[in-house]
Specification:
There is one protein chain. With 503 residues, this protein is of the alpha+beta class. It folds into three domains: 1-171 and 277-325, Nucleotidyltransferase, domain 5 (2-Layer Sandwich); 175-275, Nucleotidyltransferase, domain 5 (2-Layer Sandwich); 331-502, no CATH class. It has helices at 53-63, 94-106, 140-153, 163-172, 209-216, 222-243, 300-305, 327-382, 391-407, 418-426, 454-468; strands at 3-4, 8-9, 13-18, 22-29, 39-47, 70-73, 80-85, 114-119, 132-138, 157-161, 180-187, 190-197, 200-208, 249-256, 273-275, 432-440, 444-451, 473-484, 492-502. A five-stranded mixed β-sheet has the order 5-4-3-6-10. Strands 13-12-11-14-15 form a five-stranded mixed β-sheet, sandwiched between helices. The protein has a four-stranded antiparallel β-sheet with strand order 16-17-19-18, with helices on one face. Helix 5 packs across helix 6 (222-243). It is elongated.
Length: 503
């Protein structure tokens, strides 16, 4: 048995489906042995007007089973389903890239919404096909409302799913893995079509009832409605044939709600149609009420969502998928940041010690300068010297000028900026190079550049601070940004900015 959630053995799933007419729930256990059917051990119903914490507690008394986690299937108006080309970015950047790209498509900001992804497989023989991906969006407010109901009821919601994948799960129960299966679910709200193969969802299509009613007229007969559905189905199958030529659809299964007056069986298709019999797929011996074909469509989506135990299915989970919900990633980033701050602190400490030594040397030089000045005064008072020709006096004056110049050192001093560019040229570190040097108002220096890794950058900063310590200048502020070079290279670099000022 597969292990889920902290090592606990999961024997099945408790699934609920929120519809306009109510909340339908089931608990399904996997087959005990190969060849048996999944067993529906409990079922229950809650009027939609009672969808709150108290009503959920009442429903849980009807359907909950120890060891079975809960999965909720959203109603169609609670989520947005998109199919977009898969961005060519690193896996860890995929979600953020999609959030940026679909804002204009959906017409609202998705920065804080819950988002889940599911890739559409492409056969290796058709490499020219652009890979696509399913994107599911749920408003943050919707997620909070659902979480609030479960928390108030004292229940843990483990998974959140959508109707398309639940319907896909049903179709795969009757699928031979060598072929594709199309499943048509006709209900009052519209017609849902899914095409799947090998556990993957390749096509979803939902035609609202209002759409084809307007197309054929609200007073049209059943035959005209069937004809319209037939046309839309044929267009969908033609799309699959063009887009996924490796996917061969051999059968179309149909599940029809008893309240829908339509019959697809006489439609003319090359593909064989077959009525979906849930009793052949599930064991209803412990829930005999579900053996009634008239109510089976009401529990159709809940039954499909409860088949999550199948390991070969691609599954969605929108729970805890809101932007920014990355506790482990955030912790790792904080650890890296703390390490950088610690290293910079160590380098700064070493620089301060070196600076104190230089200041001590400077004090000694200043004392020597005073002695030199006294000596010059004594010599001037004792004799009138030819200042132009006296080498001793010339040497003393040059020494005094250099000491005074050292005392006045700062960015943009009498020597100009040449000494700083000379030092930047002399300081080298393999894997680190500068791209710009900016000196602002003679008070600070900003360096920008690129490093192959953070270790090389830290060694370079240490060398810089050692070289500039004589000028009372230290680089103590660092900005890092890891980026990838253009598409022709897969190498990653650390882009950096170093800032310093007069010490």
């Amino acid at each position: 048995m597969k292990k889920w959630f902290s090592g606990n053995e999961v024997t099945g799933w408790t699934s609920i489906d929120i519809q306009a007419t109510g909340v339908y729930g089931v608990t399904v256990l996997p087959p005990a042995t190969v060849g048996q059917r999944p067993c529906v051990v409990k079922s229950g119903f809650l009027p939609v007007s009672e969808w709150n914490a108290a009503g959920l507690i009442q429903l849980s008394e009807q359907i909950s089973v120890a060891g079975c986690p809960w999965v909720l299937t959203l109603s169609r108006d609670q989520y947005t389903l998109l199919v977009i080309p898969e961005p060519r970015v690193h896996t860890d950047e995929l979600e953020q890239s999609i959030r940026y790209s679909i804002d204009e498509t959906v017409g609202f900001s998705v920065a804080e919404d819950s988002l889940a992804l599911m890739k559409i497989p492409v056969d290796a023989a058709y490499t020219n096909n652009t890979p696509h991906i399913y994107v599911v969006l749920v408003k943050r407010e919707t997620m909070r409302e659902i979480d609030s109901v479960f928390q108030d009821a004292g229940l843990k919601l483990s998974q959140i799913d959508i109707r398309e994948t639940a319907q896909r799960n049903i179709s795969l129960q009757v699928q031979d893995l060598k072929q594709g299966v199309a499943l048509l679910f006709i209900e009052e709200q519209g017609v849902a079509l899914t095409v799947s193969s090998h556990g993957a969802l390749y096509l979803d299509r939902f035609i609202k009832t209002s759409a084809f009613m307007e197309a054929v007229g609200r007073d049209a007969g059943v035959e005209r409605i069937d004809s319209r559905i037939s046309l839309e189905l044929q267009r969908s199958f033609d799309f699959v044939a063009r887009k996924y030529p490796f996917l061969q659809i051999e059968r179309v299964f149909i599940m029809t709600s008893g309240s829908v007056p339509t019959d697809i069986s006489p439609l003319s298709f090359d593909l064989p149609f077959e009525r979906l019999e849930l009793a052949r797929m599930f064991d209803f011996s412990q829930t005999p009420a579900l053996s009634n074909e008239k109510i089976q469509p009401d529990y159709f989506i809940a039954l499909g969502a409860a088949l999550r135990y199948c390991e070969n299915y691609q599954s969605l989970n929108l729970q805890n998928r809101m932007a920014g919900y990355r506790p482990r990633a955030i912790l790792a980033e904080l650890c890296v940041l703390a390490s950088l701050i610690l290293l910079l602190g160590l380098f700064w400490g070493e620089g301060q010690l070196a600076l104190e030594q230089v200041r001590s040397d400077y004090a000694s030089s200043e004392l020597n300068l005073q002695k030199i000045r006294v000596r010059i005064n004594e010599m001037n008072s004792s004799a009138v010297l030819n200042q132009a020709d006296n080498p001793v006096l010339t040497t003393l004056r040059e020494a005094a000028a250099k000491t005074i110049l050292a005392q006045a050192r700062h960015l943009g001093n009498a020597d100009g900026y040449a000494r700083y560019f000379t030092l930047l040229t002399d300081v080298e570190e393999k894997g680190v190079w500068l791209t710009s040097v900016v000196i602002e108002s003679g008070k600070s220096v900003a360096l920008s550049g690129r490093a192959s890794d953070q270790a090389a950058l830290l060694r370079y900063v240490k060398k810089l601070n050692t070289a500039f310590v004589l000028y009372d200048v230290q680089f103590t502020q660092m900005e890092l940004n890891a980026e990838v070079l253009p598409a022709q290279s897969e190498a990653r670099y650390v882009f950096f900015k170093l800032h310093c000022g007069k010490g």
